[in-house]
Amino acid sequence: MKRTKTTEIIVERDEFYVVQHSAAPVALWCEACGGETQFAYPIAAALATQTPARTLFRQAEAGLIHFTETPEGLLLFCLKSLGQRNEPLVAAEGGQEP
Ligand SMILES: [Zn+2]
Question: How far is the CA of 17 from the centre of ligand 1 (A)?
């Protein structure tokens, strides 16, 4: 009688991708401002203004804040227009510390 031996090999593979952009603002030409201004990625703009990114997207769609898109389709917000909204831009440095 022929015996068959079965070996089961389980391969687990985890892939982890980190897509990160610099939080530093980028100097770009803003058509709406008519000059070169600083642009920030949504997460950086949201943190700087303490405004949910979703709100910033809505405000951009409504034309309240200026934005541009990279060739890859990433959105950048004009910091100058963000500073002209009702809520003041929160300074990145010199925050209130006890
Ligand atoms: Zn602008």
Answer: 32
Specify the length of the chain in residues.
98
* Distance between Cα 33 and ligand 1 center (Å): 4
β-strands 75-78, 35-40 pairing = antiparallel
Contacts for 84 with CB less than 8 Å, ≥ 6 apart? none
Q: What separation in Å is there between the alpha carbon of 6 and the centre of ligand 1? A: 66
Instruction: State in Å: Cα 48 to ligand 1 middle.
Output: 16
pLDDT tens across 37-55, in order? 999 999 999 988 899 999 9
pTM higher than 0.85, yes or no? no
CB 28 within 8 A of CB 74: no
Could you tell me what percentage of the chain is helix, strand and coil, using 3-state DSSP and rounding each to the nearest 5? Answer: 20, 20, 60
